[in-house]
Design brief:
The chain has 360 residues and is α+β, with helices and mostly antiparallel strands. It contains ten helices and seven strands.
């Protein structure tokens, strides 16, 4: 909703509650006026004045009766007007208690008002997102525990075999290679979790320098040489020497995560492409792989922490790599987009040049 529309709906809501208050006052005035009119018409005041202190009693009686009627009308109308507020409070309490299935309903009358409809829609969207995040968190804990346990079991098992001795040199080399590989898996998982924790709440980018982006990408490709060599991927590197300003270590994590994902989801013997395109206002880095495509229904959810588009978990991963990528790119005032169709998936990171001078 636009700001002008929001201001109009807020004014309309103010007028609504002001109108309710006016109706309460009007109802009290009408009821009290009717009592006074009846008292004058039927000569109740004159009758009471014939008795001792009749005028005082009449005045007090009318005042008390008016007060009671006004309080009753106010209580009755307030209960009606406070019902949606009570509904909101009750729904918020349920949400705070962990009931993410709660939904806010404000009734037919108030539910038509733009601002009240905005409140209910925002609350229901928040509850839905919290519920989805809770499901993803639970799945992450389960999956991460499983993935964390698997390499530990492998390391422990092969370490026991090495300790027994009576092994050939080939067996020792094979077992130590497995231990080293599983140790790196543990290290990668722990690194991603630590990186996410570090950048998630970071608002100021520090250690900004001007560095050779092309050299950094080549180093990241070499770092993952063992992974893409196993799949016999054909590298297609298309870039000249390009320099950017940013946090070198954080951007290194971006390329490693994107390249690692590209290798994991590439078909055997396919092509892995890395390309840098410079525009007057931005630098674009595109990493392309050919293989398993991202399901269309995944949408922007692939950038949510703990989400894994591959629900079969056939590929290693814990669903936080792309969340780290997006957060780091946002800290650099940039954006990350992707396209995936016909077996081709491409992630493009845009680092704007006009904001480079604004970085600390």
């Amino acid at each position: 909703m636009k700001k002008s529309e929001q201001r109009k709906s807020r004014r309309a809501l103010t007028l609504l509650f002001g109108g309710v208050t006016f109706l309460i006052l009007l109802a009290v005035i009408l009821v009290v006026g009717a009592l006074v009119y009846a008292a004058v018409k039927f000569d109740w005041i004159t009758r009471l004045e014939s008795r001792s202190a009749g005028r005082i009693l009449a005045t007090i009686g009318l005042g008390l009766l008016s007060l009671l009627i006004g309080a009753g009308i106010t209580f009755f109308i307030s209960r009606i007007t406070m019902k949606p507020i009570n509904n909101i409070i009750n729904a918020m309490n349920e949400l705070a208690a962990g009931n993410f299935g709660v939904r806010l309903q404000l009734g037919k009358f108030l539910g038509r008002h733009p601002t009240m409809r905005e409140i209910s829609d925002s609350f229901n969207k928040m509850a839905e997102e919290l519920g989805r995040t809770e499901i993803l968190r639970s799945d992450f804990v389960s999956n991460f525990s499983h993935e964390f346990k698997t390499p530990i079991v492998s390391i422990a098992g092969f370490a026991k075999l090495l300790r027994r001795g009576n092994l050939t040199q080939a067996q020792r080399q094979e077992y130590t290679a497995v231990i080293a590989e599983e140790s790196m898996r543990l290290s990668d998982m722990a690194t991603n979790v630590l990186n996410l924790s570090r950048v998630e709440n970071q608002t100021i980018l520090s250690d900004v320098t001007r560095f050779n982006l092309s050299e950094q990408l080549r180093a990241c490709v070499l770092l993952l040489e063992e992974a893409w060599t196993k799949k016999q991927l054909d590298l297609d590197l298309r870039f000249d020497e390009v320099y950017v300003r940013g946090n070198e270590e954080l951007l290194r994590q971006v390329w490693i995560n994107l390249l690692d994902n590209a290798v994991k989801f590439s078909d055997f013997g396919a092509e892995l492409g890395v390309e840098i395109n410079e525009a007057p206002d931005a630098t674009h880095v595109t990493i392309t792989n050919y293989g398993q495509a991202i399901p269309p229904e995944a949408g922007d959810r692939i950038f949510q922490k703990f989400y894994q588009a591959d629900e079969s978990h056939a590929a290693q991963g814990n669903g936080i790599g792309l969340a780290v990528v997006q957060r780091i790119v946002e800290l650099h005032h940039g954006s990350v987009d992707y396209s995936s169709a016909n077996g081709k998936t491409a992630f493009t990171v845009t680092l704007p040049k006009e904001n480079a001078e604004d970085l600390p």
